[in-house]
Design a protein that fits this description.
Structural class: alpha/beta
Largest sheet: 9 strands, parallel
Order of helices and strands: EHEHEHEHEHEHEHHEEH
Helix content: 40-55%
Number of strands: 9
Distance between the termini: 11 Å
């Protein structure tokens, strides 16, 4: 029995040349998917971004994270979305935040790319009903729902696991050291993707790829016994 959960590694670099270099290292370490954090680029150029994705030639999530959810993009909202739109024919997934205008989310989704509609809160974990409402809205607008919250206590991390137990095609993460175990447990609930760290740590509590793979393999070995 093997987990269907894919391990994604974010790449957060200022230059496309560095993105390619880090991508090769992450692939060597066993990533299933790479997340190209386009918002990290110092001078984002659409042609260069497209060439980078083509040169890496590996399953890719294109993400241009909005500043209010931990991103670094400095341009206008229209520019941010346009860059994502131009990646739709090359990326396997595009991550776009739920707080983006509905028309922008629809524009991305209508290209046919698999859309991850995401929501991040780096301060708290809402109650289960509120999270379920967020996930439901995300599923209405895209293919995969993603929520990530900061826990204040262990109960908050269990709330996130409860979301995974109720929802298909959902990525649910409890951040920080307290919630890091939820990234491993995601495979138990057939979450499509979990996130680990390669060269770059882009969220609190990310586990490095080597440890993540070891934990998942150890778990599978125990199940086989």
């Amino acid at each position: 029995m093997y987990s269907q959960t894919k391990i994604a590694i974010p790449i957060f670099q200022e230059k496309c040349g560095e993105v390619i270099e880090v991508a090769r290292d992450c692939i060597d370490k066993g990533a299933d998917i790479l997340e190209f954090r386009i918002d990290a680029l110092k001078n984002p150029d659409i042609s260069e971004i497209r060439n980078t994705i083509e040169e890496i030639n590996f399953p890719m999530i294109a993400t241009n994270r909005i500043s209010t959810e931990g991103g670094s993009f400095k341009g206008t909202e229209e520019e941010r979305i346009n860059i994502l739109y131009e990646c739709c024919d090359l990326a396997d997934y595009v991550d776009i935040e739920l707080q983006s205008d509905d028309e922008y989310i629809a524009k991305i989704h209508e290209t046919g790319v698999k859309t991850i509609v995401s929501y991040h809160d780096f301060e708290k974990t809402p109650d289960l009903n509120e999270i379920m409402y967020i996930v439901e809205k995300e599923h209405e607008m895209g293919d995969i729902a993603k929520v990530a919250f900061m826990p204040q206590d262990l109960e908050d991390t269990l709330t996130v696991l409860a979301v995974l137990s109720h929802c298909e095609n959902t990525i649910a993460i409890s951040m920080g050291d307290l919630g890091s175990y939820t990234r491993v447990m995601a495979s138990k609930f057939d979450s499509p993707i979990t996130f680990a760290a390669g060269t770059d740590v882009t969220a609190p509590g990310q586990i490095d790829i080597e440890t993540m793979k070891a934990l998942l393999n150890m778990d599978l070995n125990i199940m086989e016994e």
